[in-house]
Design goal:
With about 300 residues, the chain is mostly helical. It is about 80% helix and about 0% strand. Keywords: Membrane, Transmembrane, Transmembrane helix.
């Protein structure tokens, strides 16, 4: 009787986690579209700063709804600082890449983040990579070369090459943020993670923003508020989903972002994907999914 009662509850929980993850990916993809549109008007430093500043009203609303001390607890400030710097690096890299590349190509590079996170955790935290990491790394790197090769061959070191480099830098920053978040999550409050990251990223971006500042219209200010709202909501939904089901059940859903990127590239910029971009992205996603599958198997083996 208990098992029968637990079954539907578990199924509903999984379905809600899947729905939350899909909605989060849609929100974050839409956020990147708005940032790409804003990128034609402002420098990257100003974009990172404005996104950080615009997040503060949303975080304030969060505090009004959830003022409990546990949500805003900070016990490891040094790692919070590092995480904020990594968020700034990710923002600089990706926002610059969005100005030079179609969304789908930038996303293809971003999809290597799980592999980069494994390598960073190995180098910085001593976490031993699981079996097959080398294969996944090689396949992911091959996928990046497939995506980037046409642009590099046609236009040399201008344009696309700088975009791919920016996306790679953003991916390393994002992967580092994932590793530090995993380190902080057991002891820190969820609200504190959001607040500290945005404050530090804004401070890092401030001098760069002041060097190349452009006036903001009311519409652009609204755009940054929309971006930050989508970011806070999307990351919150991902955190909610991951707190209710095992990571391997919902993490692969992040790759639905590529479908959103293809759709937005066509609808907004009338850009059709190259066959090499699709093939390279497929190879990268396959490598990361296989890596996630191996990690899930090893986690089950450790649990016995």
């Amino acid at each position: 009787m208990t098992a029968a009662a637990d079954g539907p509850t578990g199924t509903v929980r999984d379905q809600r986690a899947v729905a939350a993850m899909l909605l989060a990916v849609a929100m974050l993809s839409s956020m990147d579209v708005v940032m790409k549109l804003l990128g034609g008007s402002h420098g990257v430093g100003q974009m990172v700063l404005m996104k950080s500043l615009a997040s503060l009203p949303w975080i304030a609303v969060w505090w009004l709804i959830r003022p409990q001390a546990a949500v805003w607890r900070v016990r490891r400030p040094a790692i919070h600082l590092l995480r904020g710097v990594l968020l700034a690096i990710a923002g600089f890299g990706f926002f610059h890449a969005f100005t030079l590349l179609p969304l789908a190509e930038a996303y293809a590079i971003l999809f290597t983040a799980p592999i980069a996170a494994v390598l960073l955790a190995w180098g910085l935290m001593g976490e031993r990579p699981g079996r097959g990491t080398g294969i996944a790394l090689a396949a992911g790197f091959a996928g990046v070369l497939v995506v980037a090769a046409p642009g590099l061959m046609v236009q040399g070191l201008d344009g696309p090459a700088l975009g791919y480099l920016s996306a790679a830098i953003g991916t390393i920053g994002y992967a580092g943020m994932v590793v530090t978040t995993r380190t902080l999550a057991p002891s820190e409050g969820l609200g504190a993670l959001s607040l500290s990251a945005n404050l530090v990223a804004g401070l890092v971006a401030l001098p760069f923003a002041l060097i190349d500042w452009s006036p903001l219209s009311a519409l652009q200010t609204g755009g940054y508020l929309l971006v930050s709202g989508l970011s806070v909501a999307g990351i919150g939904l991902i955190s909610w989903a991951l707190s209710r089901v095992e990571v391997h059940r919902v993490a692969p859903l992040e790759y639905t972002a590529f479908a959103w990127a293809l759709a937005y590239d066509w609808l907004v910029w009338r850009v059709t994907p190259q066959a090499t971009s699709l093939a390279g992205a497929a190879l990268i996603v396959a490598a990361c999914l296989w890596l996630e599958h191996r990690r899930a198997i090893e986690a089950r083996r450790r649990r016995g």
